Amino acid sequence: MTAYYNERNKYAAQWLRNLIQAGHIAPGIVDERSIEDVFPSDLRGFTQCHFFAGIGGWPLALRLAGWGDDRPVWTGSCPCQPFSAAGKGTGLADERHLWPAWHHLIKECGPAAVLGEQVAAAVGKDWLSLVHQDLDGIGYDIWAAVVPACSVGALHRRDRLWTFAHPKRHKQSRLEPRCRTAGRVGRVIQPVSWHTDWEGALASLRALDDGLPRNVAGTDAARNAIVPELAAEVIAAYMEAA
Asked: Is 188:24 a contact under the CB 8 Å cutoff?
């Protein structure tokens, strides 16, 4: 029952190791290679695989939604820069468009469930169409929805595209009732506590960005993360509908 985490940013990779050691996310190993250097054979024996893992938002959200560490799943938040309004706007032509590398691994390994996230702007830049076409071509059904962070009480809108896929004709028994942990996860020493309220968290991130390399790294890692509470809601909805 071991998870695989793929994250090439060294600061975020160490953050993941801290969370694993503290027991806040599924036990596993952290691979700092680019996803383009990962082979299907490298993933054998892992129950869960988390790509572009960042600071562990997806595995934390799975736990919050009641998805056990022993239940197979792949997750990934492909780089948003090619499609973000703050990026260069090069879309599928951007070298950071890494969906093809992830698609190759999905095709070769055939995971039971694939959960993904991307900026909402990607819908209008052919990313969703490509993902749908690619997954359909290898025998997967796919669902997608745009849900903002403000829907779970965040103080910013942060529209995000959420995708869910599993093999066609995948017969699945009714899932266990949706459940939640009693409280939020405990604190690991990081730039911003998991317990911090949204307004306080945003203020802390602004204060961190003072030009010092360590603090800038922490700011980047945190602000690029998904909102676990939101991801937990969409995961739970998928669990109830599957």
From this structure: yes
Residue 30: CATH number of its domain: 3.40.50.150
Residue entry with tokens 């995971």: 111
| Res 87: pLDDT | 59
At 198, list the tokens: 């949204």
| 83 secondary structure, DSSP code | T
Total domains present in the chain: 1
* Predicted TM-score (pTM) of this structure: 0.79
What single-letter amino acid sits at 65?
Answer: A
CB contact set of 179 (below 8 Å; sequence gap of 6+)? 66
Chain segment 179-207, per-residue pLDDT in tens: 333 333 332 333 444 344 444 544 554 44
Return d(Cα 90, Cα 63) in angstroms, integer: 35
Q: Are 80 and 119 in contact (CB under 8 A)?
A: yes
Cα dihedral angle (233, 217, 127, 104), rounded to 10 degrees? -90
Structural domain of residue 13, as residue ranges?
A: 3-241
Count of residues making up the chain: 242
Beta strands in 58-187 (DSSP E): 73-76, 114-119, 140-148, 159-167
